[in-house]
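Thread title: Can someone regenerate the structure for this chain?

I was given the following input by a collaborator and told the matching C-alpha cells would be attached. They weren't. Posting the sequence so someone can regenerate them.
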Amino acid sequence: MSHITNDPMAYSHVFDMTDQFNASDLSYWLIGGYAIELIVGKRIRDHSDVDFMVDVRDAGRMVEILSELGYKLGKGSVAEGLAYYNRGTEEVCVVPIDSTLAPPATVGRFKGMKFPERFLDTLWLQIDSHKIPTLQPRMHVSMKHIVSEFFGSGSLREKDIIDIQHLADF
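Best answer:
Regenerated them for you:
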C-alpha cells in the first residue's frame, strides 16, 4: 500500500477522476508523473497534465465522465490516438490502447508504438479509500523509452529521467 504524506490535496483531482472511472468499471491505467509519484509514495516534480491509458472500448465512456466532471476537449481526439481535455488550468491526456492485442497497441497516429507483451499487467495502488490501476514500475520505464523512440528524439526528457530515477528501487 502506498501513502502520499507530503501533499495529499495535490492528488484530489486525480482521485476524483479515478473514483468515477472505477464506478463505471472502465479498463484504464494512470500513467506518467502522477502514477509514478503514487508508486513511490512522494511528490517528485511538477506536472503539466494527468495521463491515462484507456482500453479503446472504454474511451468513449471515459470522455463522457471527463465531460461530466467539467473537462472540455482541448486538442486531438480519441480516434487520432491522443486527446487532451481541459478544466481551468488542469489538463488530462487520454491515450486509447487496444488491450486485446498481444502485445497491446495504441491506435490512430500512434499505432506503431511497440509495447512489451505484459505491458498492461496492472499494479493496483490503494491510497486511502482510492483504488488506482497503473502499470508495473518496469513498464513505466519501458514506456518512457518507447515514447521517446517513437517520436524520434531517442533521448529522454529531463522529467522522464527524474521519473526513472525514482522508480529505480521499485
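The beta strands are 28-31, 50-55, 72-77, 82-87, 90-98, 105-106, 122-127, 130-135.
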